[in-house]
Amino acid sequence: MLAARAPAQISGTRKAAILCLSLGEEAASALLTYLEEEEVQKLSKELATLPKIKPETSESIVEEFHQLLVAKNYVTAGGFDYARRLLVKSFGLENAKRLMDKVMHALEGPASFEALQKTDPQQISKLFQSEQPQTIAVVLAHLDSATASSVLRNLPESQRGLIALRLANLQNVSQDVVKRISQVLNQKLSTVSGGMSRTSIGGIRAVADICNRLDRDVMRLMLEQIEVESPSLALEIRNLMVTFEDTLLVDDIGIREIMQRVDKKILTLALKGTMTELQERYFSNMSSRAVEMMKEEMDFMGQVKMKDVTAAQREIVEVLRELDDQGVINLGGAENEADQYVN
After folding, report:
1. Of 169, 318, 156, 170, nearest to 221 (Cα)?
2. From the CB of residue 180, how many other CB atoms can be counted at a distance below 10 Å?
3. By residue range, what is the domain housing residue 13?
4. Is the pTM of this model over 0.70?
5. pLDDT per position as a tens digit, 157-173
6. 49-58, 314-323, 334-343: which has the minimum mean pLDDT?
7. Of the residues 49, 75, 108, which one is the last residue of a structural domain?
8. How far is the CA of 248 from the CAs of 66, 125, 203, in angstroms?
9. Inter-residue contact 151 to 125 (CB < 8 Å)
10. 287 pLDDT band (50/70/90 cuts)?
C-alpha cells in the first residue's frame, strides 16, 4: 500500500493518476480527451502501475485539485489581487501563497491577449494593417466575439471574407506561434500607446458567433465572399448562426408566419421530442383543437429517427432565414441604423 505521503511529495503524473482514480471511470475518460497523446500515454502507464492508495492520500489530492480550480477561477473573475485576498480568507496565508504561485506559473505559459481585449477595436484594426489574414484570424480567435466582430467591422471590406475563412479553418495552432504573435502585437500596442503545446482555437463556431454580432449587410457580404471559396463552409457557418432553438426568440407574428409557410407534417416532426418551451411557442399560437390534433399526430408517429427530426428542423431553419432576410423577424446581429429606434 502506498504510504500516506503529503501531495507535495508525490509526482505530478502520479497525482493526476490518483485524481483519475478518485473521479471514477466516466469523469476520468472525459478528462483524458483534453490531453495531448503523449500526456495520455504517460498517465495510462502511471495508472497501470499504481499501487493501492490510502483514502487519506486520495482525499488530499482531490482537495488540492479543488483548491487550484478555485484559485484559477478567482484570478479569472477579478485578477491576482482579488484572488489573493479571497484565497487568504478561504485557505489561510500559507496555502494562499502556494496556490497563487502554482496558478501564476500555469498562466505564464499561454500567450496573453488581455491587453488587446481591452483596446479600442478601431485601434486594433490599425495594428493589423501590415499583418497577414492568418495572423489576424489567430488573434480574433483569442478575443471574445463582441470585440472580434467590432475589429472585423473596422477592417477593409476586401479582407473580411478571407480572414473569416482562415478563422473558420483554424484548429490546432502551435502555442509558440501564438505566443510570438501575442508578443509582437503587445509590443506594437505599447509603442502606439506610449515546448510546442497546441491550443484549440477558432473554428466555424467562432465565425458564426462573430457573424451574429455583425450588421446584416456586412455579415451577408462576408458570407458571400466565403461562399465563393467554399460553399460547404458557408453553409456550415449559416447552420450554426441560426438553429431551430432560435424560434424561442421569435415573436407571435413570426411564429404564425412560420406555421403558414411550413407543412404541418414537417412542423409536427420537428417539434417531436424537443423541449417543452419550444413546443409551447407554437402551441400558444394555435387553437386548442389544432394543438390536440398535433399532439395526437406526435403520439401516432411513435419512435422516429433523430436524423428525420433534424432534417425537419432544418427546413424550418431555412424559413427562419428567409423571414430574417425579409425583415419579418430579427434573429440577431447588430441592427442597421435605419432599423434602430429613438425616444
Report:
1. 156
2. 13
3. 7-108
4. no
5. 888 888 988 888 887 77
6. 334-343
7. 108
8. 37, 35, 26
9. yes
10. very high
Cβ atoms within 10 Å, residue 311: 13
Assigned C-alpha cell, 252: 407571435
Q: Read off the CATH number of the domain in which 156 is found.
A: 1.10.220.30
Return the amino acid letter for 184: V
Number of domains comprising the chain: 3
Q: How far apart are CA 286 and CA 292, in angstroms?
A: 10
The single-letter DSSP state of residue 215 is B
The last residue of a domain, from among 224, 254, 289: 224
| C-alpha span between 60 and 18 (Å, rounded) | 10
CA distances from 310 to 72, 97, 139, 313 (A): 39, 52, 34, 5
Please count the residues of the chain: 343
On whether both 70 and 134 belong to a single domain, the answer is no
Alpha-carbon gap, residue 122 to 155, rounded angstroms: 8
